[in-house]
UniProtKB/TrEMBL annotation:
Protein name: Uncharacterized protein
InterPro entries in the record: GH, Glyco_hydro_25, Glyco_hydro_fam25_subgr
Keywords assigned: Glycosidase, Hydrolase
The species this protein was found in: Bailinhaonella thermotolerans
Similarity remark: Belongs to the glycosyl hydrolase 25 family.
One of the GO biological process terms: peptidoglycan catabolic process
An MF annotation (GO) of this entry: lysozyme activity
SMART domains: Glyco_25 (SM00641)
Amino acid sequence: MLHGIDVSDWLGAVDWAAHRQAGVSFAFVRATEGDDGHDRQFARNWEQTRSHGLLRGACHRARPGRDPLAEAGHFLAAVRARGFLTGDLLALQLQDAGGRDPEAVAAYARAWCSHVTGDAGVRPLVLTHVAFARAGHCAGLGGYPLWLAAHGDAPGRPAVPQPWDDWAVHQHAASPVDHNVFKGPAVRLRSLGLGGPAEEEIMKRLCVLGMSIGERQTVAGGSAEAIEYNVEFIDLDNLHADGGSSISPKVTRDYHLWARATIEGLKEGDRVTLHFSRYHRETGEAGTEVHREDRIGDGGTISVALYCFDHLDDRHRVRFRVSNANDYPVTVTESQFRLAT
């Protein structure tokens, strides 16, 4: 196991040379908090960890109740401003509900993680603790690597809460600095960061169905359209339902859902909404929504992605939809939709 620490400006100026000499191999440093907070030591810590040969990760402290997409954008802008390089990791510190109920906190975290994954191409680790996860605040996050704060457990032997089956990083002590271990060698930790297997490549390796659009599709103003597909590469279990837009899981289990598209004609400042939605397999009746996120136009053609990890059953179909509440049409092109185990 690798040994590491995590720090914030509460510790002041960290002596990175001393930690490196003591056997520390990696470090997570706080970058941001909420949608406007900056860690005063982030710039120094980010530069010093790299200059001392440590694998490094940037961490965002969540403030559920605020806009998760604004927080994700604030975080990524801060990291990129200081250099987001190959092997760098990203993490969400999710340990404070901010007075919100577990369902709202989990929805916030799913939106934050999905946005970061789609924008940065890196699945963030989620730092939380057992009681918080068991209370339901982390529902739907099992597809992201777990960074578990469990100070009463022996290093590398934490009790893993649902929705995870395993841990990646274990924070096992908090005095005078947070101490962690990583489950695996340095090359494995580095693979979780920038330049590791791209989300698209992960989907290809695990894919049980992949669909790509056959032609350009217009979404009229004030409407929502399920994107129509032709099967392009893999569908061994005949999961691509009749009608051209649905995936029909044959086994009830957890799945990765991943979609990508190009949106043309969206005006600057206007938005469209991306959805994964359930429909009853036999009747077609709309069921619960799996996941949704807004994307804002910049006046040109934009590339969008939507990713989530969710429990799907064999009684429903799943579709990727684009909603356009504006008073003019937009065009969806180059769309892909994948279901992976």
